[in-house]
Structure formats: C-alpha cells, structure tokens
Predict the structure.
Amino acid sequence: MSLTLWLTFTVAAILISLSPGAGAVNTMSNGLRYGVRQSMPAILGLQLGYGAQILLVGAGLGALVASSVWALAIIKWLGVAYLIWLGVQKWREPVGVGAVEDQPLASGRSRFWQSALVNLTNPKATVFLVALFPQFLVAGQPHGPQLVAMGTTLILVDCLVMLGYALLASQLFRFMTTPERQRQMNRVFGGLFVTAAVALASFKRS
C-alpha cells in the first residue's frame, strides 16, 4: 500500500470513527461516569469487538455473513436488544446524594466485555468493512499485509477518536454535583443508547 493510498484510507477511517454510533455513545457514557483513564477498559473492549469484525471480513467470512439474510438479522436483533438493555440500565442507574465518585463503580472487566459486545453485535460494521476493504486493496499485491495495515489503522484511529470522546464527556463531570443533574445525564445517555438501537433496527442493506 502506497503512502498516498494509506493517507486516503486514514482520512476515511477518521471520518468513520467520528460518525456518531453506539460505540461513541458507550465511550461518552464511560467518560462522563469514570473519567478518561478509567474509560480505557471500555475503549479497549470496543477495539476487541472491532478487531473481531476486521478479522471476520479479512478471513472472507464477512462476505458470507453479509450475504446471509438470517445471519445478519440474528446479529442485528441481538445488537438491538443489547443496546436497549444498556439504555434501560443507564436510565435507571441510581444517583448519589453527593459527588458522582461516591457511587459504586462497575469493574473494568465488566465494562470491557460490555463494550466488546456493543461492537460484536453491530452488523453495520461487517457490511461496511466488506464494502470498504475492496476499494483500497491493490490488485497484484499480497492481500494479507494490506489487510493488516488497514485493520491496524482502523483500530488505532478509533482508539484515538474514542479517547477524544471520553475526554470531551469527562469535562461534564464537574457539573454533575447534584442528584438531579446526575439523573438528567443518565437519562440522556439512556435515551442515546435506545436511539442507537432504533437506528440499528432500521438498518437495511443497500
């Protein structure tokens, strides 16, 4: 892959990661609740799910899944149900009388796997990668190294963008000083998770 082609792909990767979706909502929710550093387990979990999608497509299974109506439907509705569950949990999350940090925190491990499932159950990522990779693969060159380069770029870019989202959300932490503000923010993010579920439910392949 030439430098020019890689730079073009990197720009596409940045735009993809910046587009709002379930992963961004999940990261902002963690950034607000736990701060930037403690959001890392969730961000890494998202990358595990994303990496699994990349491997799936790179191994040629992504095209099979994308061409199977039943497989895509099962993955899609699992993702919808999971996002709704996350939204309900966030909406109902208890608020403290004092500062947000006094509330019990979920373990990093649980947030890691929760975030991994967010990306693993997103068929839009599979369909998107199936459509994206062929546009940048150079014919006549080994596909393996090219796929590794693109997959690594996608994950590194997404990590940086998610860190940015977590940093942005963490700036709201200082405003979360009353139970009422905490409750309002929980409901905002709960609503965003459900909105992401609705968007996923309405997703149809072109």
In short: The chain has a mean pLDDT of 79.
